[in-house]
Amino acid sequence: MPVKILVVDGSASDRLSIKNKLKEYNILSAGSSMEAVRILKEHEIHLLILDINMHDMDGLLFPEISVKDRRLTKPRIIALTDNDNPDIAVKILNQGPWIISQNQ
Q1: What's the rounded Cα separation, in Å, for the pair 42 and 21?
Q2: Structural domain that includes position 56
């Protein structure tokens, strides 16, 4: 089964950049949390690359909201942020198995 990765970021250029770096994988992308939830309902996603600075929702809340829907798979999450506040990293780590990366 090929690995499916969902990239959720409000910036089209950031989504494209990530997609280009991960060419060997099956990449889906969403520009909003609502689009991401729709994709998660339609596909089995193995890895979620999530910008926590989303336009339509606090990215920190997205995993909590998405796991309440039992129809959704529970992918591993890589959280991207350009926020250097250590409290954000603590909030992310307290929510579960996340990997934190500073958005470049």
Answers
A1: 24
A2: 4-102
